Structure formats: structure tokens, C-alpha cells
Amino acid sequence: MELHVQELTAEAFTRFGVIIEQPVRSQDAQGPGWSWWGENAYLDSDHRPYGIGYLDLVPADLTFDWAERHMHSQEMLIPAQGDCLVYVGPSLYPEEPGKMPGVESVEVFRIRPGQAAILNKGVWHGAPLAIREPAKVIVLLLKNSGAEDCYVVRFEEDPVRIRLDQEKPSREV
């Protein structure tokens, strides 16, 4: 017996499941260097399904002036194409979900295709950043986390710049 390889399309795969790729509809949100499509599909769980989001990243200024966190949900970042940077801050002040520790506590990590990062509940973070080439990232987050469990802090007057070193990314405050 011989089997032939098919192109993976939503129509061809519908009997077996769902494929995740950049949606053809307009993005749900965007910022410098990123476009976001949230909850394109769901991964069932016992209590509420995980929404699967898609990030399209293009290189932009390596700065950030905001962070968010989800107190009741982990978040998983899976680079599908290209390296990306993720900035993260510790999960402090659980009794004050909108209070972020100082930006000096934030760290930056490079995530490569073939790796994934699961952010703990309450960890401060923002949209990953493309470095020198475009990148695509699949994001898993409990359904409705953006609407029901999202705390955002902005520090537009004092943005943080990321400096790329040879060995590892670091921050310049």
C-alpha cells in the first residue's frame, strides 16, 4: 500500500480536527511589530477550553511600554517561525492584580522554534517581539482570559529598551 501526501488545509483536515494558521480575517489587536488574532480554535479542558491565538510579528523597535497578566490562567507561547523575545516580570502582589513590580524586575528571554514557554499564573508579560526577521507565534490561553482575567499596566512615559547582546538578550532601563 502507498499513501500520498496532501496539503494541510482546513477543508481537507476537517474530519480529523482543526489546523492553526494565520487567519484571513482582520486582526483583533495590533501594536508596533505585532498583530493578534485571539481564540481562533479551542482546546477542550475539564473546566473551560483553551483559546488558541495567533501572533504575526515583524521586526520593530525593541522597546515596550506596557505589560499584562492573567491571575487565573497560564499562557503558552509556541514560536512557529522565527525567534522571538518575551519579556516577563515576577508574579508578585496577588492581592493587588493591577500592581506591577518595578520594571527593573523584568527579564527578557529568546524563544526559538522547537521551544515553547509556559508563563505561570500572574506573570507579567507583553506581546513577544520579532528580532531581525518576521516571526509567527501560537498562543494558548484559557477562553475569555483577555476579557475576564487581564490586568494591564502602561508606562508610556518611561519605555524599556531591549539590547541584544551576543549571548543573551538583556534589558536597558
Describe the protein in words:
The structure is a single chain. This protein is mainly beta. It is built from 2 helices and 15 strands. It has helices spanning 10-13, 145-148; strands at residues 29-31, 34-43, 50-57, 63-64, 66-69, 75-81, 84-89, 107-111, 117-119, 124-125, 129-130, 135-142, 151-154, 160-164, 169-172. The protein has a 6-stranded antiparallel β-sheet, with no helix packed on it. The radius of gyration is 17 Å and the shape is globular. The N and C termini lie far apart (62 Å). The model is unreliable at 169-173 (pLDDT under 50).
Strand percentage lies at 35-45%
Structural class by secondary-structure content: mainly beta
Strand order across the largest sheet: 1-2-3-12-6-9
Radius of gyration (CA) equals 17 Å
**Can you summarize the main beta sheet?**
6 strands, antiparallel
Helix content: under 10%
Shape: globular
Question: Which residues form runs of ≥5 with pLDDT under 50?
Answer: 169-173
Q: How do the SSEs run, as a string of H and E? A: HEEEEEEEEEEEEHEEE
Distance between the termini: 62 Å
How many strands in all?
Answer: 15
Summed up, the helix count is 2
**What is the oligomer described by this structure?**
single chain
Can you give the mean pLDDT? 89
